[in-house]
Amino acid sequence: MKCLVTGGAGFIGSAVIRHILADTNASVINVDALTYAGNLESIPDAEASARYEFAQVDICDFAALSAVFAEHQPDLVMHLA
Fold first, then answer.
1. How far apart are CA 41 and CA 61, in angstroms?
2. Is 60 exposed, middle or buried (0-12, 13-18, 19+ CB in 10 A)?
3. Whole-number pLDDT of residue 36
4. What is the mean pLDDT of each run of 10 residues along the chain (81 residues)?
5. What total of structural domains would you count in the chain?
6. End-to-end CA distance of the chain
7. How many Cβ atoms sit within 10 Å of the Cβ of residue 2?
8. Alpha-carbon span 21 to 59, nearest angstrom
């Protein structure tokens, strides 16, 4: 299963990503614009995982977000941005 998480570098999103990577076999696509609230240091072990991808995309950018969906084709979306 592929999970796309918006706001994955935020407080709640990073906790969800840590949980998915630690406790499931699912893959995660983290979509975050990395504004004032986003910090990739909240998920320090994620980059080392083959099940993790990061896309620095603003969810208001329709073309960029569409490209992420086309490339990764997620099974599940968790909108936490």
1. 24
2. exposed
3. 87
4. 97 96 97 92 92 97 98 97 90
5. 1
6. 21
7. 15
8. 23
Its pTM surpasses 0.90: yes
Residue 65 confidence (pLDDT): 97
The pLDDT assigned to 17 comes to 97
42, amino acid identity? S
Which pairing describes strands 27-32 and 2-6: parallel, antiparallel, or unpaired?
Answer: parallel
CA distances (Å), 59 to each of 22, 23, 24, 42, 45, in order?
26, 27, 26, 20, 24
CATH number for the domain including 58? 3.40.50.720
- Residue 37 half-sphere exposure toward CB, CA atoms < 13 A: 13
Which structural domain, as residue segments, surrounds residue 54? Answer: 2-79
